[in-house]
Design the sequence.
């Protein structure tokens, strides 16, 4: 089916919303099929897909989503860990299966409208994602270019069997909360050969917060062959960790001018365990800090509460997050500005079992330095080595840092480590 068959519903080309809705409804009644979008510029409101539908956006086709919040109905879904009403995503499905979004065309979310209203506090409800699949199975997103997302760009939420391959994401560096790809409480996800250039974290794995109702884990995730640019973090775990994040493989990626490379962020109250993280064959250039594991992350509601900020030991219970079983190998870092690594576990629950093998970090001798982690009392660093607190069974194997302005390792009595 070709969307131009419904040109009569497109209001002289100014609004294709009714045309897309009618086409999807017709395909659904037929049991599914392909909706082809040929070259051209299509202004539209959000498009809700259903099971067994392929949306194919051809080279030269551009879907431009309206810069008008009244065009975006509200849906109820998990938003940053809690159930809320949110403006429907530009491309959306809920409780569906066997959906594909593919082609060499462009989806433009016209995000500047949303970013400006967000900064002014003029929105009554959270901004739409560019693509969101909620509680879906067998999802593919391939080839498309995604520009100017209103908020998070690709958000699979509580989905199973997700493939994201060969897509390009570009949001301006100063656009608020425009994460690239955020699998959220998903299982069996492959993210391959993608380019992600955004105003927040590039690829982030999430698993609900203390406000979520029994969130599923985010697990069995493969990320490979990706190019990550300008984000606050390249590949990030958290800060939503309540359902646990585990069995993750990251390989063969390039990070360029991301603030941080591999980043974990969580805090007391979140709970959950992050474990089984295997990382190898990475190149990083002009990063502030290549490895950050921060269990005192303070952003968001409640992040500066006394029990979160305190460096004194607290009782360990189901709300205490844990990080363990991390292996990082074969990483080359050039022009690093702040420090080679920042590992800060909880006083009552240290990060445990981290191995760094065959790591080479070259510090930028002229860098002004920066603060590697978003936590209270985080020191500003410039050209420093590895900073460790509350960490046990940490191994450095064939790890070298060049052009240091301080010691290779800054660790106190809360740390146990081996240099090999």
Sequence:
């Amino acid at each position: 089916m070709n969307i131009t068959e419904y040109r009569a519903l497109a209001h002289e080309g100014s609004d294709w919303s009714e045309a897309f809705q009618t086409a999807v409804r017709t395909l659904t009644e037929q049991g599914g099929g392909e909706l082809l979008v040929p070259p051209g510029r299509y202004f539209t409101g959000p498009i809700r897909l259903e099971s067994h539908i392929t949306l194919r956006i051809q080279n030269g086709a551009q879907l431009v989503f309206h810069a008008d919040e009244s065009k975006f109905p509200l849906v109820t879904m998990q938003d940053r860990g809690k159930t809320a009403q949110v403006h429907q995503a530009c491309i959306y499905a809920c409780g569906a299966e066997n959906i594909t979004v593919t082609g060499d065309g462009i989806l433009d979310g016209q995000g500047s409208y949303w970013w400006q209203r967000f900064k002014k506090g003029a929105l009554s409800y959270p901004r739409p994602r560019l693509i969101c699949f909620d509680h879906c199975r067998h999802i593919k997103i391939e080839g498309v270019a995604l520009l100017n997302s209103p908020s998070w760009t690709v958000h699979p939420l509580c989905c199973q069997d997700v493939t994201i391959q060969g897509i390009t994401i570009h949001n301006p560096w100063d656009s608020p909360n425009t994460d690239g790809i955020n699998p959220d409480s998903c299982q069996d996800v492959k993210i391959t050969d993608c380019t992600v250039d955004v105003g927040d974290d590039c690829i982030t794995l999430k698993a609900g917060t203390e406000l979520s109702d029994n969130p599923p884990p985010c697990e069995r995730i493969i990320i490979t062959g990706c190019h990550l640019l300008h984000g606050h973090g390249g590949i990030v775990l958290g800060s939503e960790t309540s359902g646990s994040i585990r069995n993750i493989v990251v390989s063969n990626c390039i990070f360029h001018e991301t603030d941080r490379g591999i980043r974990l962020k969580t805090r007391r109250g979140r709970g959950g365990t992050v474990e089984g993280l295997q990382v190898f064959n990475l190149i990083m250039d002009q990063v502030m800090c290549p490895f950050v594991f921060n269990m005192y992350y303070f952003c968001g509601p409640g992040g500066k509460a006394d029990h979160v900020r305190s460096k004194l030991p607290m009782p360990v219970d189901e709300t205490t997050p844990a990080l363990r079983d991390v292996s990082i190998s074969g990483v080359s870092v050039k022009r690093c500005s702040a420090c080679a690594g920042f590992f800060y576990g909880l006083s009552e629950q240290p990060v445990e079992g981290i191995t760094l093998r065959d790591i080479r970090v070259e510090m930028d001798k002229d860098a002004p330095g920066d603060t590697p982690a978003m936590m209270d009392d985080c020191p500003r660093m410039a050209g420093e080595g590895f900073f460790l607190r509350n960490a046990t069974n940490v191994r450095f194997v064939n790890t070298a840092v060049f052009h240091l302005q301080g010691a290779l390792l800054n660790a106190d009595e809360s740390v146990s480590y081996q240099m090999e």
